[in-house]
Amino acid sequence: GASAAPTPAPAAATPGRTVRDVTSPVEVRPVEPSSPAAQVPMAPARPAAATGQASPAAAAPASAAPAASASPADATARKPGSTEVRALRIRGTRSVELVAEGDAELQRDDILLTADALTYREPTDEALAEGNVRLRQGPDVISGPSASLVVGERTGDFQSPRYEITRTKAGLEPGDPPRQVSGGGHADVLHFEGENQYRLENATWSTCSVDDPDWYIKARDLQLDYDREIGVAKGGTVVFKDVPFFWMPWAEFPLVGQRQSGVLPPTIGSSNKTGLDLTVPYYWNIAPNYDATITPRYMGRRGLQLGGEFRYLGDSYAGEVRAEWLGRDRITGEQRTLGSLQHRQQITSSLYGSLDINGVSDDDYFEDLSSRVSVASRVNLLREGRLVYVGSPWWSASALVQSYQTLNSDPDNPVTTPYRRVPQLLTTASRPDLPAGLTFNWHGEYVQFAHPDEDHPEGNRFTAYPQLSLPMQRAGFYVTPKVGVHYTRYDLDEPVAGLTDARTSITRTVPIFSVDSGVTFERDAQFFGTAFTQTLEPRLYYLNVPYRRQNDIPLFDTSRYDFGFAQIFAENRYTGGDRIGDANQLTAAVTTRLIDPETGSERMRALVGQRYYFEDQRVTAGEALRTSRRTDVLGGFSGRITRYSTVDTLLQYNPEDNETERFNFTFRYQPEFAKALNLGYRYARSLVSPDGTIGLRDVNVSGQWPLGGGWYGVGRLTHSLKDDRLTEAIAGIEYDGGCWVARVAMHRFATDPNDVTKAVFIQLELNDLASIGSSPVNLIKRSVPGYGKINDPAANRVFGIE
Amino acid sequence: CGFRLRGPQPLDFATIHVGVSEFSELGALLRRQIATSGTTTVVEDAAKADVRLQVLANEREREILSLTGAGKVREYQLTQRMRFQLLDKNGSALIPPTAILARREYTFDDALILGKEQEENLLFRDMQSDLVQQLMRRLAVVRRPQ
Q1: A489 in Cβ contact with A464 (< 8 Å)
Q2: Cα–Cα distance measured from residue A346 to residue A319, given in angstroms and rounded to the nearest whole number
Q3: Which of A346-355, A454-463, A495-504, A687-696 has the lowest mean pLDDT?
Q4: Exposed site from A180, B25, B28, B42, fewest CB < 10 Å?
């Protein structure tokens, strides 16, 4: 089945950046990613018993045996393409016209036509059916008072039919079992226009039950194309609960629930920033690999915005262009615009390029015009071009030109814009199979850093970092000694201000030596009456980096890593290349896991780690010098503690001062699909937030629970105990109507110390067709861990992760 | 207390096809790990392999974990979800489609976005190797029906 709209290139083909934010504040299209729809051949369901046989090739004035009488002719023995007519009475002449009356049946291959009376004309291959006509083909059924059909060509007409057509669709994800999607309705006339092609007059279509649908599309002219799996409605209206919902002069819609194409219904929401928020998108399917959406959006408080999106897909490239334009914002009196371009291109089999350019007219754009927290919280908008060359599995090179637009919506807490990299040239290599078991790694980088502000020194940095390691790995242990020489050269346009002997030309050469080692012990253990394999995995990491003076190097791209389990085993306590932390230190950690011996799946893990310093710290990146010889102790636990509940927790403890520095705790109870309760606590004693506040103490509760009768409640509260302030609240209710779902959610989140955004999302989702309203699903998924989308097909209702 | 050094982890198949390009980080990591088993070689022709490992999805996501009072991001949570299946020569599943998940969180500051981008990469690499370890443990218990 061909999807009508371009689907984004797979994420795996995008090296480098892996996370994409949503730039547009408006979502006009169903959000779920499309999965390639696969059409599985229908299994013909043939009646087992067959009576008198009247193949056009065989003798025609056949027996008038009653339908119940037995006959040796077996359905499976029938020749492909042969036609059988059965009835209580059959008359006429073979190869001219057969008239069958009383429980008449005509069968060819997987087509079975039944009626009170049937006339079959062999020369034209035409069948005329009168009275209780029923046409079956595989799982598809069309019934009505009369029909005429050219059997082989699948052309003809069906008067006043009731129809139901079923197709098998691939599961939502590769590997999922396929699912059945049925659509059907009634019409004045159904025209057969060849195999898999139907045209209907004054017809209805729905994925609900055919006879009493809660919603349906009503159209003057309805085309169902089961080759492309797309329906086209002309003069159509979507009717929900007998109420016409919206009218569409021309619309394509998916017949088997492809998510990327089809009707774009209006979205309705509301927020205190925009007022009533109504969008009426118009979807234009220009070609199989191009489409466009034009989105007029009316905001009660601000005026009319026009948005547009153009997507394209080629063999070696894909991309989208998006723009928004609000001629005059009624509140600010200004024009407000957004532009965005994403392009990905496979230039040759080993050369890949991408462009990602985003911009808005003003600092408050997202905060004012978006009611989605993931968009409203955006500060830095990316503008970059990238080329990646993968020379072989062991080396690659890339070139990057990158800058950001920094939005400063809060003038009291301005955010410094990041340095521009114009350009960054990078080469990396890893050659693991050298003689004597040696591994060679290479990191080479040249960056020209530029900054729009006068007071930021600019300059370039050249780095060469060859490394040799000798991994020795056995089943139960590994030891990896490693040496490297980190060479850096800076050329600055001015020395760093405030230092007496700051240089503009700086060379730094640092030998780096480390040994990483780990052992894995195992035992068979019984916990909670279950047999497990328990592991015990101590790991020791020794690092030695001599001190080099680098306080006169500007911090272009460098900050200190968080204190976490991945970061404490990093070779440098700083990201970027502007500081190489001096080190003579040993990091130790122990992990223990409980593993299901049957499946190899991990049920629980607990970790504890700490770092010991043999020397005092000398290199800093602006932070206070460490005084202690030991770091805080880091402890973590995660896993399933009962059949239905999981715990995830992390503790950072300072043994010198007897203080808990950081404590995160999450408990989840999830007994079945769409039933989840979460309790979370986050504490960080001295975490400095971007807005300058110190410390964090948040408690949050969230959950989804069935309330009975098809109703479900969802909600989340995040309360800052430190500020005694509700920073985020979500309350929502969902109703599962069988073939549709309605959701209402209210979201309130802080956008400023004294300001909140309050938004209402109203959504009506017509299963396998479209969603009307602004979807709160992504918001709820993010905010309520374990949330189950209640109209996901049953096969996809996997809750939790094994 | 009953702990003993972990013994060799032989895989119950002599050849495996890995359905991820060796040019990708995941593909390279999987090939390296399978090579250390000592029992199994990776073959590039799927038809010749005893078993086929298919990575059905390997998705990375970043979500806001907490906001500052000013509505800016203070912490992000990273999630990597890998879904895979293991098929034998006839295409029947030795391991049905299975999802495994890793999560990490880190503090964010828009003023340090260049450094944080690299921290994010470090965490994704850590999660990738965590998931590959979990996958290897599942491959190690697979027994082919005789």
Answers
A1: no
A2: 12
A3: A687-696
A4: A180
Angle at A358 between CA A354 and CA A362, to 5 degrees: 170
Q: Say if the Cβ atoms of A174 and B60 lie within 8 Å.
A: no
Cβ–Cβ < 8 Å for A456, A554: yes
Q: In chain B, what is the straight-line distance between the N-terminal and C-terminal CA atoms, in Å?
A: 36
Query: Tokens representing A292?
Result: 């466009």
Is-contact A672 A643, C-beta < 8 A? no
Indicate yes or no: CB of A690 within 8 angstroms of CB of B110.
yes
Strands A477-492 and A755-766, by their bridges, are unpaired
Residue A620's alpha-carbon distances to A555, A558, A624, A625, B3, in angstroms, are 11, 11, 7, 7, 42
Amino acid A765: pLDDT = 83
Best residue in B74, B82, B101, B138 for a mutation probing chain A (most A CBs within 10 Å): B74
**Contact at 8 Å (CB) between A608 and A633?**
yes
The backbone torsions φ and ψ at residue A219, rounded to the nearest 5 degrees and listed phi first, read -140, 145
Residue found by looking up tokens 């004045």 in the block: A188
Out of A519, A524, A559, whose CB is closest to B112? A559
| DSSP secondary structure string for all residues of A560-577 | BPPSSTTGGGSS-SBSSS
**CA–CA dist A403, A366 (Å, integer):** 19
Rounded to whole angstroms, the Cα distance separating A368 from A362 reads 10
CB B66 within 8 A of CB A691: no
Q: How far is CA B8 from CA A661, B17, B30, B37, in A?
A: 40, 21, 18, 7
Q: How far apart are CA A639 and CA A596, in angstroms?
A: 12
Q: Take residue B6 and report the two structure tokens written for it.
A: 């972990």
Q: Judging by DSSP bridges, how do beta strands B41-42 and B15-18 pair with one another?
A: parallel
Dist. CA A443–CA A249, nearest whole Å: 59
What is the C-alpha to C-alpha distance for residues B121 and A52, in angstroms, rounded to an integer? 73
List the Cα angle B140/B144/B146 in 5-degree steps: 145
pLDDT digits (tens, 9 = 90+) for A118-174: 999 988 999 999 999 999 988 899 999 999 999 888 899 999 999 999 988 777 677
First to last CA, chain A: 32
Q: Is A797 on the interface with B (CB under 8 A)?
A: no
- Written as six digits, the tokens of A566 are 């991945």
The predicted-structure confidence for A36-52, as pLDDT tens digits, reads as follows 322 223 233 333 333 33
Coil, strand or helix at B119? helix
DSSP string, A440-472: EEEEEEEEEEE-SSTTS--EEEEEEEEEEE--E
Nearest CA in chain B to A720: B69
Structure-block tokens of residue A241: 């609960």
Length of chain A: 802
Q: How many CB atoms are closer than 10 A to CB A427?
A: 16
Nearest to A475 by CA among B6, B140, B142, B30: B6
Mean pLDDT lowest among A32-36, A529-533, A657-661: A32-36
Interchain contact, A598 vs B141, CB within 8 Å = yes
Which residues touch A221 (CB under 8 Å, ≥6 apart)?
A199, A200, A201, A233, A234, A235
Cα–Cα distance between A250 and A265 in angstroms, integer?
Answer: 12
Distance of CA A95 to the CA centre of its chain: 59
Measure the CA–CA gap between B33 and B54, rounded to whole angstroms.
Answer: 16
> Which of A595, A598, A749 faces B71 most closely, judged by CB atoms?
A749
Q: What are phi and psi of A301, to 5 degrees?
A: -90, -15
Distance from CA of A575 to the nearest CA of B (A): 5
- One pLDDT digit (tens) per residue for chain B, 146 residues: 789 998 888 899 999 999 988 888 898 889 888 888 888 999 999 899 999 999 999 999 898 888 877 778 888 999 999 999 999 998 889 999 999 999 999 999 988 999 999 999 999 999 999 999 999 999 999 988 76
